[in-house]
TrEMBL record:
One of its GO terms (molecular function) is ATP hydrolysis activity. Transmembrane segments: none annotated. Coiled coil: none annotated. It comes from Cercophora scortea. The keyword Nucleus does not apply. It holds the Pfam family AAA_lid_13. This is P-loop containing nucleoside triphosphate hydrolase protein. Residues 1-23, 102-123, 445-468 are annotated as: Disordered.
């Protein structure tokens, strides 16, 4: 048995596999049988001449749109003839060659002159209409067999290759075949997936190359690009629906990488499980589309700001911001994407009059564009007999709540083309932003447990739960109980009212709308846990923490009024824990001379009265407060300075957290806990006027760790870290930090002739 030699071209090089070769530029059909078949299917003459005139022929130019459109009908007729005539095809071909003047052949040809065909899509083929002596015969079978061989071995093979993952390069003439209505395509960065609604390409029209260079402007006007009309699904705050996007691909020479196109089919992507990832992302889009509290870690889309913060996704509120209205952030949903597409372009209705088409009958198959496009668009509509079934969101918008019903649930195909972008409010920076769903994650849910719970393994091998931030908070235990009880009751009442539909069942004031909120005032020295209490409560109750400062509110009464109203309304809508840090700026005591301050305080008093959510006010200048605020605060808690036990507890928490971080990175941190405990106790007793608060202890631990790691890395400043280096953190590192801090405190004492805490007491800011 002799192995077959691979086929080679005229240069001796191996021919590419079937389907990898570019399509022939055109085919000429000389067969009267084939012309008659195509004419019957298309319901008009292909050549424009009397069909009995056997001297007529027709030329079809790639990408052979009519053959793609008519393939099913041609196959149906071919099967009918095969089933009817059991003859030797070769014998039939020889006996009929003189009668019909040859079979179909694919050849490169030259010529011109185009006869337009009816642009309306033809009615379904009735095979009985083809029953005549010429077509319904063994000869008809032989000639049709030639055409089917071209379709199978050349045209369909090329289409199969273009739609396979192995396709790497495409020619401009392949684009009509590559982009099919209903195809899913993705942009070059693989962020947004689209669905192709329609594809249009102008008919062949060559240009005199000399004329092209003499009149470049005219040549550009007559350029014949491929237009791929796509949609993706977005949300405008009320409805979810299609947003159109037109991609225009200008003519290019030779073949180019398919992934270099502005969009390309997703089956050509190298990303594993891309389809499932798009579906999962679409589900997340629907989940957060209304209002959702999430965590975002990554760059924003427009500003490219790095964000590591909790966010609130809220499309509707985003689009009410005046700046966003001007920038047209709201997506423009198309009412009915299936309506005829009106492209603002000059239609190319002329004929090719260059040498390649002189005296040729070029079959005008532009009708295939609209027919193929219409068939797909019609498939997106529900059957006429259904009443409650809505059209696909790919072509028609609908209310978001309608996507939750079983009958109108969003399909996987619709999920794939959901927008990759959502709009949200970044709580840390207090800015609106366009957010990428890739970087959006659920907020971690803390759980309460026993005081002895730690994140380690027990003798049973079971891993214990990590303590929540609220449990680790070093504040008086009674403060924890009081804060927990009043906030839990507030949210219980609010939830009960929401479920029952009541609007004022939780009313406690004589005047309707007043006193429905919960205001907590936390006061004490800096760094004792006031702000941390609000942050930990928000985490514990799984609520967004909306933190505002005086710098966010403005300096005039009118500006403060408008900003406070807006922020308080958002906090109440999103069910936030609202934190006004360093509130003494706007809550300071009024006087008869400062009318600006009096106006600010009056505005604040009024808004506090009607706020219905949870508000934390923190200050370390309680002595400067206006007395009118006293009656508007539900709970006032004094945070004392850390005692000896509390100081070591904060030290211990910070040291444990550092050890956990190093363990997660696979590195070794050796903490001499006993030595550090001795240092903490000694420092507390020997420096009564320079004791560290919680924030200072955290900073001291970070600085001491940096000193220890610098030593472990050989006292080098290289960016490369030796992961095997053992870091030893001991008392000496903290003594270095303490020495620097004590010098600073002594310097401050010399300036004011007293220590900072004594100065605050003398100024009657706090006891």
């Amino acid at each position: 048995m002799v192995a077959r030699k691979p086929k080679v071209d005229i240069t001796g090089n191996p021919q590419p596999p079937i389907g990898h070769q570019p399509l022939p530029e055109r085919i000429r059909i000389n067969s009267t049988v084939i012309l008659k078949i195509l004419g019957k299917i298309h319901e008009t003459s292909i050549t424009g001449a009397d069909i009995q005139d056997e001297s007529e022929s027709a030329v079809i130019i790639r990408p052979f749109k009519s053959l793609v459109i008519y393939e099913d009908r041609l196959r149906a007729l071919h099967k009918l003839l095969v089933d009817r005539f059991h003859v030797n095809i070769r014998t039939a071909a020889l006996s009929s060659s003189r009668a019909v003047g040859g079979g179909s052949q694919a050849a490169r040809a030259s010529g011109g002159g185009t006869r337009s065909a009816d642009e309306r899509p033809p009615e379904p083929l009735t095979l009985a209409s083809l029953y005549d002596n010429l077509v319904y015969s063994p000869t008809g079978l032989v000639h049709l067999q030639c055409l089917m061989e071209f379709i199978d071995t050349t045209l369909k093979a090329r289409i199969d290759h273009l739609r396979s993952p192995g396709c790497k390069k495409v020619a401009f003439s392949d684009l009509w075949l590559l982009f099919k209505p209903g195809e899913f395509v993705i942009d070059q960065r693989e962020r947004q997936c689209y669905r192709v609604i329609s594809v249009t390409s102008a008919k062949h029209q060559a240009t005199n190359p000399f004329e092209q260079y003499r009149n470049l402007t005219r040549f550009e006007d007559e350029e014949t690009p491929v237009r791929v009309f796509c949609v993706y699904v977005d949300f405008d705050g009320k409805r979810i629906g299609p947003v159109p996007k037109l991609f225009t691909i200008t003519r290019f020479e030779e073949e180019k990488n398919a992934t270099d196109l502005e969009v390309y089919p997703i089956h050509l992507s190298d990303t594993a499980d891309l389809r499932q990832k798009l579906i999962d992302r679409g589900k997340l889009f629907l989940e957060v589309a209304a209002i959702k509290h999430m965590h975002y870690t990554g760059p924003t889309i427009d500003a490219r700001d790095e964000v590591d913060s909790q966010v609130v996704v809220d499309f509707e509120e985003t689009f009410t911001v005046e700046e966003h209205i001007k920038q047209r952030w709201r997506p423009d949903l198309q009412r009915d994407i299936s309506m005829p597409l009106i492209l603002k372009e000059k239609k190319n209705t002329g004929s090719c009059n260059w040498l390649c088409c002189v005296n040729e009958n070029i079959f005008d198959d532009q009708f295939a564009d609209e027919r193929r496009n219409k068939e797909f668009r019609d498939s997106l509509y529900p059957p006429a007999w259904t009443q409650s079934k809505l059209p696909s969101v790919t072509i028609f918008p609908r209310d978001l709540k309608e996507t939750t019903t079983e009958e109108n649930a969003v399909t996987d195909e619709e999920l794939m083309i959901m927008s990759y972008r959502v709009f949200g409010f970044v709580l840390r920076s207090r800015k609106w932003a366009k957010l990428d769903l890739t970087y959006l994650r659920p907020v971690q849910t803390p759980q309460l447990g026993d005081e002895n719970d730690k994140e380690d393994t027990t003798g049973t091998g079971k891993k214990k739960r990590k303590k929540s931030a609220f449990e680790q908070l070093v504040i008086p235990p009674k403060h924890k109980d009081m804060v927990m009880s009043v906030i839990a009751q507030h949210f219980r009442d609010k939830s009960r009212d929401k479920e029952s539909g009541a609007t004022y069942s939780n009313q406690v004031d004589l005047v309707r709308g007043k006193g429905k909120g919960l205001i907590l005032l936390l006061h004490g020295a800096p760094g004792v846990g006031k702000t941390s209490t609000a942050e930990c409560v928000a985490e514990l109750f799984q609520k967004p923490l909306f933190q505002i400062t005086c710098g966010d509110l403005g300096t005039t009464a009118a500006a403060v009024d408008a900003t406070l109203e807006r922020n308080f309304a958002l906090a109440n809508k999103w069910d936030c824990i609202l934190l006004l840090d360093e509130a003494d700026v706007f809550l300071a005591r009024r006087n008869t001379k400062d009318y600006v301050r009096n106006g600010l305080v009056a505005v604040f008093l009024r808004i506090l009265e009607y706020y219905a959510g949870v508000l934390f006010l923190t200050t370390n200048r309680i002595g400067d407060f206006d007395e009118a605020f006293t009656s508007r605060v539900h709970i006032s808690l004094h945070y004392p300075a850390l005692d000896e036990q509390g100081t070591w507890q904060v030290f211990k928490i910070n040291l444990e957290r550092m050890s956990e971080r190093f363990a997660e990175r696979g590195r070794t941190l050796d903490v001499d806990t006993a030595e550090i405990a001795v240092f903490a106790n000694k420092y507390f007793l020997q420096n009564p006027n320079a004791r560290w608060n919680g924030r200072q202890i955290r900073n001291a631990c970070s600085t001491a760790l940096a000193l220890a790691e610098y030593e472990a890395q050989g006292s080098k400043h290289d960016a490369v870290v030796r992961p095997d280096a053992v870091i030893t953190l001991n008392q000496s590192h903290f003594e270095t930090v303490a020495e620097s801090y004590l010098k600073f405190i002594e310097y401050v004492r010399r300036i004011f002739s007293t220590y900072p805490d004594d100065k605050a007491s003398e100024d009657k800011l706090r006891a």
